[in-house]
Every structure is written in C-alpha cells, then in structure tokens.
Amino acid sequence: MGWVQMSRQDLQRIEVLTEVLAGRRTTVSAAGVLGVSLRQAQRLLARYRAGGGGAMIHRSRGRPASNRLGPGVQEYVLELVRQNFRDFGPTLAAEALLERHGVEVSRETLRKWMVADGLWLSRKQRRSFHQPRLRRESYGELIQIDGSDHRWFEQRGEPCTLLVFIDDATSKLMQLRFVPSESTDSYFSALQGYLNDHGCPVAFYSDKHTVFRVNRPDAMGGSGMTQFGRALAELNIEILCANSSQAKGRVERANRTLQDRLVKELRLAGICDMAAGNLFLPSFVEHFNERFALPAQKTENLHRALHVKATQLTDILCHREQRHVSQQLTMAYDRKQIILERSEISEKLAGQYVEIYDFIDQPLEVRWKGHLLPYRVFSKDQRVSHTAVVENKRLGHALATVKAQQDIKHVPKVMTNSAKGGYKKNPRRLYGPDYKPKIAAAPAVEMTA
C-alpha cells in the first residue's frame, strides 16, 4: 500500500493511545474519549503497540472497493445514457437502464458519472441568478401589488387572502386588506381605498394573474383587457406584469415578513375574522412603516390627485360588459336571464347592445346611452357549474361557496297524484254521548205549476 494521508481521527487516536502507554490515562478513559467500546480500545492499543502510528490507518483505506464495477461498465453506461437518455435525470436514467438494458447501477453512482461527463448539472450548478433591480427613485412611481393566501388568524378563523400594495421606492406599505380570495371585486375594493388615501400612482406592478392580464391572446370575447385593466385605463394608471416572482421581490419579501409579524400581532390582539382584521390593519401599517420604510432618492411625490367624483369612481370600479338585446327584449348575464321592462326606450333596443354595470355592493344596473333601464330577472340555478375552471388562488373561496350552497339546498317535495288533485284527509271522528250527526240539507225541489 502506498503513502496514505492520516485523518484527524487517526491523529486523535495516536495522541490518546500515546498517553495510555505513558501511564497518563487509563484504557477506560481512552475508550470514552475516542467514543469506542473498551474492547475496541484494547484492540487499538494492541495494534498501536505492535505497529506504531501507521497501524491506526484503516486497512481498507486507499484500496479499491470490493463491490466496484468493472472498468468498462462506466463507459458502457455513459454511452447508453448519451444515446438514449440524454435528457433524463440520474434517478429516471438508472430505472430505465435496469428495465430496458438490464444494467443495474445505483442512482448516486450514476449521478457522479453523469456530472463528471457533463450529462447532468448538480442542483448548485442549475441555480439561476437574477440581476437585482434598483429601486425606483420617486415615491408613487411604481406600486407592487400581490395577494398572499395564508392562515392569517391561525386556528381561530378561516384562511383568507391579504392584498398587499407596497411602494417600490420606499418599501412603504400603501394598502392592506383581508379578502376571501384574489378576485376582481377584491382588488376593486382595495384599489378604491388606495385611491382615496393616496391618489393615482404612475403604474402598478403585478404578476400574470388573470385579474390583471388576459393570458390567452386568442380569446374570442372581450376587448383584450381585463375589468381591472379597463378601470385603470379609465383612471389613467398603467398596469405592468412581472415575468417572474423575483422581479417583484419587494412585495414577495413583504409577504413573508407579514406572515410572521402580522400573524403574531393579530394573535396578541385576539382578532379572528376578516372584518376585525381590516379595522386593525391601518394602525399596524402605520407602525410598520415607521420602522421599515426608507426615504426615496427623490423627494417628489408622483401620485396625482383623483379628479373623479364618488359616483363616477363607483361606475369605474365595477364589472361592465355589453350585452345584445334579443327581439323579446332579453339578454343573458352571469347565468341570469334579464328581461327589460317594456317602455318607450326599451321598445327600440331590440337587436342593439346595452351596457351592464355589475357593482360590488349595489344591485345590477342596465344602461343605454346614460338611460337607466328597468328590468326583471329570471334566475337560473345559481351554483358553481360542473367542470368549471377555477384558478388555484380562488379554489378555497370557491369550495366555501359550494359548501354554503349545499348546506342551504332544499330537497324538492314530490307530490302524489291525490295531492295534485286537491285531496285532503278527514280527521278521525270521535263518537260519544254528545255526538250529533250532521244532517245534510235536503236538495231543493223545483215547484212546477
């Protein structure tokens, strides 16, 4: 056996056993220090006494493994991987080699061979690095928005979503709101609070959620713009979508911080529902910003005043769609059949388009060129339809809605033919000493002359 470097364990054993031979330490104490049994310590001492320090090196060190594969197996396996499984990972490639070629190679051995040959990159080598983006220079120039689905009230309440608006230049929390899920109505409510508190920013920065972006360029219906995008366009606010979560890392990191700090603050305050949580959030935001907000590089505030009346803002922050009026003055919307009341205006609308305003907390309105059209609704079965497409972020809220509908669903009562004919059961008659039978009146007899 050639020259072999000693390990730290070997050097420690030599030092301790030297003390035993010198009489400065007992064999029992040496076993405790080395972490071996007394019998093993006695064997090591005998080997050291007979062969010196070199005897402390493990006898298998530096020798080839007894279960090693043949010299040509590695090249044969790598050739099979190059030809047939080039894009396979080590685990799947090892399974395929055994099933298709009868070659058994452990996953870790194959991983080492593939890494050395350049057929596989380790996890460290596959890491992608994102160039950090500098903050915007002015307050109100770019507002990052996102929703964080979390059990904010722990086990005291149901899980919900927190909508987070954060300024890119200062990391200042601009708006927080607890909502059931990330939906257009939820963002409309949060946006209304933001506009009333701060005004109109230059742009919002979001992910590719369907609230903000039409993800199907070949969509047949609509104007290529979501309801939220349409509202921002009317308010002269831009909406930009990030290509990755790292691009809007400021709001992502804020979500992680809030999932730690805010959850504990809600626990200390004894809050267990969204209504109480939304009342608590303004004071939390104030204290949070006092501690963590940073000054902007430029002192100018790019928020613009909201020159929109409250009624106009309500008309903007709602669902607005056009619907075709049939010859019977009807139209379909949200699984409802809307029937226009006949009037001098509605009689002329057959074959034309009207605009539907679906508000968050107000009754639906049908308008045509500024005229409010009265209507009545023939509602279809209002339920989440079978095979409905539900996004992951709204799945929890959709299931809660389905459960609530199932709890109040009434089982229809099946009527018998007798009941349909008007048959009614007569109560049981009790006969006794005071029983007086009813005497039917004699039929009237027509007198003839």
UniProtKB/TrEMBL annotation:
InterPro entries reported for this sequence: Homeodomain-like_sf, Integrase_cat-core, ISNCY_transpos, RNaseH-like_sf, RNaseH_sf
Domain Integrase catalytic positions: 128-311
Domain of life: Bacteria
Gene3D superfamilies for the chain: Ribonuclease H-like superfamily/Ribonuclease H
GO MF: nucleic acid binding
A Pfam family the protein falls into: HTH_32
SUPFAM superfamilies: Homeodomain-like, Ribonuclease H-like
GO biological process, one term: DNA integration
NCBIfam families attached to this UniProt entry: transpos_ISNCY_2
Protein name, UniProt field: Transposase
Organism: Edaphobacter modestus
